[in-house]
Task: structure prediction
Amino acid sequence: MVKEIERAGLPVVHICTVVPISLTVGANRIVPAVAIPHPLGNPKLDAAEEKQLRRKLVEKALGSLTQEIEDQTVFE
Result:
């Protein structure tokens, strides 16, 4: 589905916990997430730290949408 959305001219970023799977399915922009049960958070952190972690991941994903890429790219 990601490829079809991108063919329509909309860039897509895949935030994932298992990068090799994203590479296999053909996602072009990949942002590694935290962990399988909590991809965009960490319940061991206090509320302020978790908010900062989530913001960092979302900002990285948004930033990846503005970059021109030629091949699959993992944004570490």
User: Anything to note?
Assistant: Residues 37 and 76 are 20 Å apart (CA to CA). Strands lie at 13-16, 29-32, 73-74.
